[in-house]
């Protein structure tokens, strides 16, 4: 029952202030966040790519309140694209964006987010890489997929994320399983009502497998976003049955979680991409990671106790 509590806490300004101010929080956060500055995150990128891993970078900052903050998000991603281009990492590193950080939730947010994210996708293309649109709560799905469709007209490699716990996702998978599409499939990390999403973990897992089968049978490029050993094994079997080559799908896991498994997949010849968040606005992301798995919360509390 802690998961819903932590998800609610992820949007509480009061709890944000308490957690952020705690002197023992920072060392634990560093396990999941690559750093607050771009330079710190690029050092992490270099280290991971040298070990055979690929990465996707997320500049944290979804809770914006005005258009000027959305412009700062745009500029942060433009700087990231330039850094990837300068370091020659476009083939190994892509970018993940949350459209809320580009103004999607503001008045006129759909058009504002599209206008702000388009130059980022352009810069990514110039850097030899691409962008994946992260999915947020269910109220944003239609807007996000509409923006995806517009971007793919000019930048067909633009990817999207689908969340298996939403009832609608199987249908979305059918629509996005076509040739040239890139879809990261995850279980979902937002608190959603029973009217739109499965609440039982078993139902979410079963939906994930159904969605994965659709994507793996299609002509697109599936990105398996899961730390669940069962889902990893199922994806490997589906790839084998479908005679997919190693460069026709990939696994994705979060920075700081199941690192040994990430290296094992690379050693076995799979493409393995690490999702790397960075930036100062880490609180919401961090709390959702704690909510996803009890082991993450246990690690956090144990670390606080040990350092105390």
Question: For the CA atoms, what is the radius of gyration?
Answer: 18 Å
Give the percentage of residues in beta strands.
5-15%
Instruction: Catalogue the unreliable spans.
Output: none
Alpha-beta classification: alpha/beta
Helix content: 40-55%
Side-by-side strand order of the widest sheet? 1-2-3-4-5-6-7-8
Mean pLDDT: 89
Rounded to the nearest angstrom, the distance between the terminal CA atoms is 26 Å
Total count of helical runs of at least 4 residues:
13
**Helix/strand order:** HHHHEHEHEHEHEHEHEHEHH
Major sheet: 8 strands, parallel, barrel
InterPro entries: FAD-linked_oxidoreductase-like (IPR029041), PRODH_bac_arc (IPR008219), Proline_DH_dom (IPR002872), Proline_oxidase (IPR015659)
Pathway: Amino-acid degradation; L-proline degradation into L-glutamate; L-glutamate from L-proline: step 1/2
Keywords: FAD, Flavoprotein, Nucleotide-binding, Oxidoreductase, Proline metabolism
Enzyme class: oxidoreductase
What does this structure look like?
The chain has 308 residues and is an alpha/beta fold. It is built from 13 helices and 8 strands. The protein has helices at 2-9, 13-21, 25-32, 38-50, 67-87, 109-126, 141-154, 169-176, 201-217, 229-241, 259-267, 283-292, 294-307, and strands at 54-59, 93-97, 131-133, 159-163, 182-186, 221-225, 250-254, 272-278. Strands 1-2-3-4-5-6-7-8 form an 8-stranded parallel barrel, surrounded by 8 helices. Strand 4, helix 8 (169-176) and strand 5 (182-186) form a beta-alpha-beta unit. Helix 9 (201-217) packs parallel to helix 10 (229-241). The longest helix has 21 residues, at 67-87. It is globular. It starts with a helix and ends with a helix.
């Amino acid at each position: 029952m802690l998961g819903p509590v932590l998800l609610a806490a992820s949007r509480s300004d009061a709890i944000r202030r308490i957690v952020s101010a705690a002197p023992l929080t920072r060392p634990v956060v560093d396990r999941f966040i690559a750093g607050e500055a771009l330079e710190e995150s690029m050092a992490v990128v270099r280290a991971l790519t040298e070990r055979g891993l690929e990465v996707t970078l997320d500049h944290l900052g979804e809770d914006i309140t005005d258009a000027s903050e959305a412009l700062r998000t745009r500029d942060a991603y433009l700087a990231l694209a330039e850094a990837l281009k300068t370091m020659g990492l476009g083939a190994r590193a892509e970018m993940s964006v949350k459209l809320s950080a580009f103004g999607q939730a503001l008045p006129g947010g759909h058009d504002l987010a599209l206008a702000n994210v388009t130059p980022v996708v352009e810069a990514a293309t110039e850097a030899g890489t691409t962008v994946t649109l992260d999915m947020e709560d269910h109220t944003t799905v239609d807007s996000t997929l509409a923006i995806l469709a517009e971007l793919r007209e000019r930048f067909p490699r633009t990817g999207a994320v689908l969340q298996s716990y939403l009832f609608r996702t199987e249908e979305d998978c059918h629509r996005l399983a076509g040739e040239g599409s890139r879809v990261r499939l995850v279980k979902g990390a937002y608190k959603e009502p029973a009217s739109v999403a499965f609440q039982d973990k078993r139902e979410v897992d079963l939906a994930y497998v159904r969605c994965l089968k659709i994507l793996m049978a299609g002509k697109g490029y599936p990105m398996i976003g899961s730390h669940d050993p069962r889902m990893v094994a199922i994806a490997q079997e589906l790839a084998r049955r479908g005679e997919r080559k190693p460069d026709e799908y990939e696994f994705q896991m979060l920075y700081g979680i199941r690192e040994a498994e990430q290296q094992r997949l690379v050693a076995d010849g799979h493409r393995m991409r690490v999702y790397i968040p960075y930036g100062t606005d880490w609180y919401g992301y961090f709390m959702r990671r704690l909510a996803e798995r009890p082991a993450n919360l246990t690690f956090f509390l144990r670390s606080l106790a040990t350092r105390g």
